[in-house]
């Protein structure tokens, strides 16, 4: 996807991705979703020199250098900010030492999702894999990239089916709390996001998108973990879905858990409590 299209879609995402909670800036929605994916797809060697070693590679050291005041997931978020090119600036993640620790031209977050080592320049995904990850794990998670005529970003790049679902999802546990008035359209009709604005994006993903698909089909979050567009009608291979579900089940049990995958011994903390 070209830089201009990325910028246009990012603008739509920054304006309305799933309806932001008031506590954080809207562009951070995508960043948080992306880091959540990183914590589920990371391996020990994403941060350590070996799976059984406490020694850190350059990416792990960069996280450690941020200190212990912030939880690990918050530090991962700090290092995984959206590439500057998507923010409309000329320089890219390759020129930011925080975003590209090993200086191989590939952002840390892309390497983690690709299963390569963000701290080793000799370990990098191929161009096809990188392009696929950057295209799917983008604002197109929730938006249709139409760039159609319209006065607002939402009109130019409307929600896809997942975006519509997240926009109307709210936390039942907070249903008794006072809610803000519904957003109204230009003609005064009640908007679909009335109950969701007070629910963090990761909580809405947990409530709606993380539900397994029916009849063996992949759910939205399962598609993302398999690096497939969540709102795309195309289905990932059935065997891949089975293997993913088997892996998720195994990770929930101490007897079958692979400690070298995901957060491992690191507790899910910080903003990740919204979804984990």
Could you characterize the architecture of this molecule?
The protein is mainly α and 276 residues long. It has a domain at 3-167. The protein is built from eleven helices and no strands. The two termini are 31 Å apart. Helix 2 packs across helix 5 (108-114) and helix 5 (108-114) crosses helix 6. It is globular. It has helices spanning 3-16, 28-41, 58-64, 72-79, 108-114, 127-136, 153-156, 161-167, 201-209, 220-225, 238-251.
Give a summary of the structure in a few sentences.
The chain is mostly helical and 276 residues long. The protein is 36% helix and 0% strand.
Tell me about the biggest sheet?
A: none
In N-to-C order, the SSE pattern is: HHHHHHHHHHH
Helix content: 25-40%
Strand content: under 5%
Number of helices, counting only DSSP H or I runs of 4 residues or more: 11
- Class inferred from helices and paired strands: mainly alpha
Gross geometry: globular
Distance between the termini: 31 Å
Radius of gyration: 19 Å
The overall pLDDT, averaged over residues, is 79
What's the total number of strands?
A: 0
pLDDT < 50 runs, ≥5 residues = 1-25, 87-91, 176-194
């Amino acid at each position: 996807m070209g830089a201009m299209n990325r910028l246009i879609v990012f603008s739509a995402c920054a304006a309305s991705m799933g309806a932001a909670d008031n506590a954080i800036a809207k562009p951070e929605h995508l960043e948080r979703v992306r880091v959540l994916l990183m914590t589920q797809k990371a391996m020990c060697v994403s941060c350590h020199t070996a799976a059984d070693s406490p020694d850190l590679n350059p990416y792990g050291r960069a996280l450690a250098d941020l200190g212990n005041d912030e939880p690990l997931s918050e530090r991962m978020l700090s290092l995984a900010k959206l590439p500057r090119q998507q923010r409309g600036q000329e320089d890219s993640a390759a020129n930011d030492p925080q975003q590209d620790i090993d200086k191989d031209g590939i952002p840390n977050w892309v390497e983690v999702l690709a299963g390569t080592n963000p701290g080793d320049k000799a370990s990098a995904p191929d161009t096809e894999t990188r392009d696929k990850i950057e295209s799917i794990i983008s604002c197109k998670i929730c938006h249709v990239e139409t760039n159609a005529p319209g006065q607002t970003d939402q009109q130019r790049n409307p929600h896809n089916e997942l975006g519509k679902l997240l926009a109307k999802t709210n936390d039942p546990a907070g249903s008794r709390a006072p809610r803000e008035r519904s957003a109204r359209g230009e003609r005064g009709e009640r908007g679909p996001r009335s109950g969701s604005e007070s629910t963090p994006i990761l909580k809405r993903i947990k409530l709606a998108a993380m539900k397994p698909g029916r009849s063996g089909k992949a759910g939205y979050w399962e598609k993302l973990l398999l690096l497939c567009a969540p709102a795309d009608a195309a289905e990932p291979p059935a065997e891949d879905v089975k293997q993913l579900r088997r892996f998720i089940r195994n990770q929930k049990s101490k007897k079958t858990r692979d400690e070298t995958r995901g957060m491992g011994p690191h507790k899910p903390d910080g903003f990740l409590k919204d979804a984990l």
